């Protein structure tokens, strides 16, 4: 009886393999949709749209690094996105594990119509953690990237 009880308790403490995979859509809804809306379209003048833009920004290695920097370090300062100006503040999400940040970014890169893209890996996010930036420094990174590759 004790052995069966211990075996049952042990098996309950191990997550099933599918539970280990991060669900980008669910994580986006929990962490991002309050500002960027469920469809990633944002709110004009308040929160910039992500849908249709993140995949374009991430088309270059520098763009991928920038997107990861935004997710990890947040953003603070004025930006122009999709032709509109925003007085931006985005909180950092560096407390989330690397695989969850990658899943969110892949979900956003697949918006507006999905499916989730496979642009970002947990290893990419882990590498991005090595460059700790302040939210205003991320704006400077954005300006440099925009000068090199105009952002949508």
Automatic annotation (TrEMBL):
Presence of the UniProt keyword Cytoplasm in the record: no
InterPro entries (UniProt xref): Cyt_c-like_dom, Cyt_c-like_dom_sf, Cytochrome_c-type_DH
Region called Disordered, residue ranges: 131-152
A molecular function (GO) term: metal ion binding
Domain Cytochrome c: start-end pairs: 19-112
Signal peptide region: 1-21
Entry keywords, A to Z: Heme, Iron, Metal-binding, Signal
Superkingdom of source: Bacteria
Matching Pfam families: Cytochrom_C
Protein name (Swiss-Prot/TrEMBL): Cytochrome c domain-containing protein
Phylogenetic classification of the source organism: Bacteria, Pseudomonadati, Pseudomonadota, Alphaproteobacteria, Acetobacterales
């Amino acid at each position: 009886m004790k052995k069966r009880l211990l075996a049952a308790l042990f098996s309950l403490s191990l997550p099933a393999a599918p539970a280990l995979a991060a669900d980008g859509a669910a994580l986006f809804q929990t962490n991002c949709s309050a500002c960027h809306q469920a469809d990633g379209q944002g709110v004009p003048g308040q929160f910039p749209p992500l849908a249709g833009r993140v995949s374009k920004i991430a088309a270059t290695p520098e763009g991928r690094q920038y997107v990861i920097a935004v997710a990890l370090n947040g953003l603070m300062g004025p930006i122009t996105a999709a032709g509109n100006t925003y007085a931006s503040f985005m909180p950092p999400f560096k407390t989330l594990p690397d695989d969850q940040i990658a899943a969110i970014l892949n979900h956003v890169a697949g918006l507006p119509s999905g499916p989730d893209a496979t642009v970002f890996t947990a290893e990419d996010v882990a590498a991005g953690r090595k460059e700790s930036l302040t939210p205003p420094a991320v704006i400077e990174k954005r300006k440099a990237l925009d000068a090199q590759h105009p952002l949508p």
